[in-house]
Amino acid sequence: QKEVEQDPGPLSVPEGAIVSLNCTYSNSAFQYFMWYRQYSRKGPELLMYTYSSGNKEDGRFTAQVDKSSKYISLFIRDSQPSDSATYLCAMSAGNQGGKLIFGQGTELSVKP
Amino acid sequence: KAGVTQTPRYLIKTRGQQVTLSCSPISGHRSVSWYQQTPGQGLQFLFEYFSETQRNKGNFPGRFSGRQFSNSRSEMNVSTLELGDSALYLCASSLAPGAYNEQFFGPGTRLTVL
After folding, report:
1. Closest by alpha carbon to A85, among A44, A41, A40?
2. Of A46, A93, A102, A101, which Cα lies nearest the Cα of A67?
3. DSSP string spanning B26-85?
């Protein structure tokens, strides 16, 4: 079993929809949680960064971390065609330097 | 502010050859990490460098190695290439090691092994 599980999709939604992306994990030592967006043939771009449990909002994006359930989410409001990309969750325990453990990535398509 | 740069962007090699990939971090960033991305395994951590020292290593064979220079630039080397080494190799930089420092990725080097 992988340390981080993420539904690979693909996920297709109409423009303007609310998108929910999720990851579950098994390592209770994870304390740092990130969401990256990766466009085709590009490197991952950091979207959200959260420490421990709680919510963080940035524009149309909201990240939630529930450590008791070992579950993290990314919500995208008013989704746009430009949001079409692969979304990767990543986590770290903090005691292994900068080593990040990634989910498989969810491929999102927002249709006009 | 320039982002992370990686060279070359594309590379084609044959089995048994070796390859060297280069990464220049964001100005002021002193920590560099390397990741391998494949469709089957996703993104996997290779190693992390800070102050010219390897701080952390992933679960890859010894054919994969790296180094960091005094200007924080980093190289990774793969010797005796195998078909399974075909992947996108990504470099990420941060101010310092540690998960509390945000990591920023470069565009990657796409390696194809024939």
Report:
1. A40
2. A93
3. PTT--EEEEEEEETTTEEEEEEEEETTEEEEE-S--TTEEEEE-TTS-EEEEE-S--GGG
Percent of the residues in chain B that have a pLDDT greater than 90, as a whole number: 89
Which residues of chain A make contact with B106, given a CB cutoff of 8 A? 43
CB-CB under 8 Å, B101 with A99: no
> How far apart are alpha carbons A63 and A47 in whole angstroms?
9
Q: How many CA atoms lie within 13 A of A20 on its CB side?
A: 4
Helix (H) or strand (E) holding A72: strand A71-76
Q: Does A52 touch chain B (CB under 8 A)?
A: no
Residues of A in contact with B103 (CB under 8 A): 46, 98, 100
Q: Which tokens in the block code for residue A92?
A: 């770290």
Interface contact flag, A94 B100, Cβ < 8 Å: yes
By the CB < 8 Å criterion, does A5 face chain B? no
Pairwise CA distance, residues B110 & B49, whole Å = 21
The model's pLDDT over B58-110, given as tens digits with 9 standing for 90+, comes to: 999 999 999 999 999 999 999 999 999 999 999 999 998 877 788 999 999 99
User: Residue-wise over A66-91: b if at least 16 C-beta within 10 A, else e?
Assistant: eeeebebbbbbeebeeebbbbbbbbb
Within 8 A of B48 by CB-CB distance, chain A residues are 97-99
The pLDDT mean for chain A works out to 93
